[in-house]
Amino acid sequence: DTGVSQNPRHKITKRGQNVTFRCDPISEHNRLYWYRQTLGQGPEFLTYFQNEAQLEKSRLLSDRFSAERPKGSFSTLEIQRTEQGDSAMYLCASSPDEGVEKLFFGSGTQLSVL
Amino acid sequence: GNSVTQMEGPVTLSEEAFLTINCTYTATGYPSLFWYVQYPGEGLQLLLKATKADDKGSNKGFEATYRKETTSFHLEKGSVQVSDSAVYFCALSGGFQKLVFGTGTRLLVSP
Q1: Phi and psi at residue B75, to the nearest 5°
Q2: Mean pLDDT rounded to a whole number for chain B
Q3: I need a labelling partner for A98 at 20 to 30 A (CA). Which of A7, B31, B52, B96 fits?
Q4: How far is Cα B50 from Cα B42, in angstroms, rounded to an integer?
């Protein structure tokens, strides 16, 4: 069963460093989403891709954040000049044509900024 | 704006007890409503959904009814098992390709 795969599972970094996460969606899912989840909260939407096009971005996604999906398959989320407030679980989800009606989530990347 | 409010946890039950997890929402328009479940160490999984008023979503013995008049989507199960221990998230479709989640409710079921 090839579900949504996220790497790394855990990332510890120092404040000010850049980090990059990778998400491999379920094969042939053309829609890909990034969410962020902080402790005790539900996931919050960050951004959405349909194939390689980034079609929506949340205001949570400051200019230090950038996401790409260059070939419409895997996606990367980069955070530049990390801050302690960036510490969270970063979740990736993919979907076939049903869109948000049927999301498949990965296990997430836990980021800790020291 | 769109928002979801869930009852705070943890909810602690004995096996075979009846479960209710309350969820109410605020939304413009007519969103779809969802329950997602997160088992320890795993990603969120769609448990059930309802797309319009009075629809009942059901799966694995869980069910929830879309109540427009009370803006609610409470999750129920008649007899919980230890394996149901997880965190449950209520969510709504909050606009273009976006889900809005509640804060989650942890369920602990003891033998």
Answers
A1: -95, 135
A2: 94
A3: A7
A4: 24
Amino acid at B45: Q
**Chain A: closest CA distance from residue B20 (Å):** 19
B100 touching A (Cβ < 8 Å): yes
Among candidate residues A104, A111, A108, the one with its CA nearest the CA of residue A32: A104
Distance separating alpha carbons of residues A84 and A90, to the nearest angstrom: 14
Q: What is the mean pLDDT of residues B59-85?
A: 97
Among candidates B105, B40, B92, B34, which has minimal Cα distance to B64? B34
| Both structure tokens of A19 | 């980090």
Structural tokens at position A94? 């993919």
What's the rounded mean pLDDT across residues B14-39? 95
pLDDT in tens, A9-52: 999 999 999 999 999 999 989 999 999 999 889 999 999 999 99
